[in-house]
Structures are given as structure tokens and as C-alpha cells.
What we know:
It is a single chain. This protein is α+β, with helices and mostly antiparallel strands. It folds into 2 domains: about 5-225, P-loop containing nucleotide triphosphate hydrolases (Rossmann fold); about 235-350, CATH 2.40.50.140. The protein is about 25% helix and about 35% strand.
Amino acid sequence: MGSLVLEALSKRYGSSTAVERVDLEVTQGEMVALLGPSGCGKTTTLRMVAGFIPPTAGRVIIGGQDVTHTPPYARDTGMVFQSYALFPHMSVAQNVAFGLEMRKVGRAERDARVMEALRLVRLDHLADRLPRQLSGGQQQRVALARALVVNPAVFLLDEPLSNLDAKLRGEVRMEIRALQQRLGLTTLIVTHDQEEALTMADRLVVMERGRVRQVGTAEELYEHPADPFVAGFVGRCNLIPGRLEAADAFRAESGALLHCDSGAAPGPAPTGAALLALRPERIGLAPDPAGRARITAVTYLGAQTEYHVEQDGTALLVARPTAPLGDPLRRLAVGDAVVLSWDAAAARLLPAE
């Protein structure tokens, strides 16, 4: 086992930059998620770590050794592909054994390690099945076993759950996380799914257009986003354009005056044009015939209900736990007047982009 270090890792295709100077350290036993929209450079970064794509500049260091120019088969990594990449003509056991065969591991040791890996993912009873005889979740676990059986220093996962349905995705997500923690695997995972990243990773790396926008824990990114992109990508957020008018007052472009705490955010408060970032669940609302805000849509989501509200020309999304039957909140409908409230410190100022 070992750490993974990326130093100014970059990839350019002609005049187009796919990844720009990524610096990152994944410590022993840590799981770090590369998170971002399609085309942000996260998969390119992972493939440079695996050795499938040569970097234009920068270094990849695994366990203290520079492997930037080392071929994939000679790197101490195990990778799970988005498509699983199982050999259809090979049994489950043969698929898992493939990496060991390439490493010239003896038959007896190979068979023992294959069964141990299959037991880890609870598939040892299906060792003789072919991939087509397995469910999607089972195929995913075979791919995990194949990556784990080589005892990699670094475990690489490329959108490993994207081909599973929502219910199965949640189950396998927890299995992967439990396995990673139990084995102490240094892991880099690529995903575009916020919930997946928030629930699995120790730290998140938010990327956009080939650049790292912010690195931190789920709580750090959610509570203290560095910029509007991170605020809008990690969770849901009301981003209201305007400018700071006083230490506790923000004037939205619509003219609405919204209270905030300009000292709550680290660093100096933005001057001139700015954005007020306000999470939907931090906003309270109460029915009030004299209220200045009006309900424009109500969406029932079971445990939570979302209210689209307009106040003085500013649209806001409010998310509240679904009220019990008989509660006045439960009876709110489009057109009803409400009063909105929030803690000033919950309204964070971000520089306008």
C-alpha cells in the first residue's frame, strides 16, 4: 500500500487543454473522489494515473516512486472500469485470475487469491458462472474482485456505479466503501454523482474545464464553497446576483433587500457585484396572508417538500421536511402568501463570476 501524489499533472491535445496543473495527494488508506460535470477532465486525470494516457506535463508518484513513464501493467494499481470490461468467454474465476496470470503468479497461489477476492465480494459461490449469467450488480463485484486480487497500492474506480439502477447503486456504493475502509485501500474514484461522492469519499476534488476548483471534505465544500461553481455543483443552492449594500444587507438585482452576514465568510467581503449563496434547507417559511413572498410551485418528495417562492422579484427554492397532516405548511398551495426567514450567517457572499 502507499500514497498517490500528482504534481502539476497536465494533458493537452494540440491547443485544447483537457487537464491543467492538477496537484493532489491521496494519503494511505484515503478515498478521494474526482467530482465534476462531463468533460471536466476527471476521467483523463484518472487514466493518466493508471498509465493509459501519457501526461503532457507533471508527475505521477505512487508509493514514493515516480511512475509517470511506467507502462500500465508495471504500475501497482488496480482499476475498475465504467463498463466493467469483463471477458465474456471467461468464467468469473478466470476473469479475476487474469491479472495474476499476467504477473506470472503460480497456479496454487493464484487459485487461493482468486477465491479470497471472490469471498470479499461475496461471489465465491458463482466462480464458474459466465458474466452473461450474472446481474449488473454481480458483474460490478467481479470487476472489483479482479482489481483487488493483485493487491494494488492504489485502487482506481472510473464511474463504477453508473450502469446500475438507483436502488442497486446505493447498495453497491456502501459495499465498496466498507471494503475500501476494511482493507485500507488508497483509492481514487471518478464520479459525476454528487451523492455518490459525498457519501463515499473522505475528500472531494471538484473539477471544471480541466482545473481543480476546490479540494476538501464534503462538509467543507458544502458549508464553505470557494466560488459559485462549487456552491451550485455540490448540493443545491440559491445563487442570487446583486451587491453588498451594508454589512448585513444584500441588494439583489431584482431590487429585493436580503439580510446576510458579510463577516461570516473567510476573507474580505466581495465589493461590487457579488452572489448571495443560500442553501434551500436553510430557509424557513410560514403561511402569512400579509407575507411578501408567494408560492409559485410545490413539489412533494416524500420526506421532503420543495417550495418555489418569489419575493420582490427574486425566485428562491426552499426545501423543508414534509409537515405532518393537518399542519398549515402541508396545505400550502400555489399563490399562497408566506414569510421567509433564515439565519444571516447561512447566507454566504461569493464573488460574482
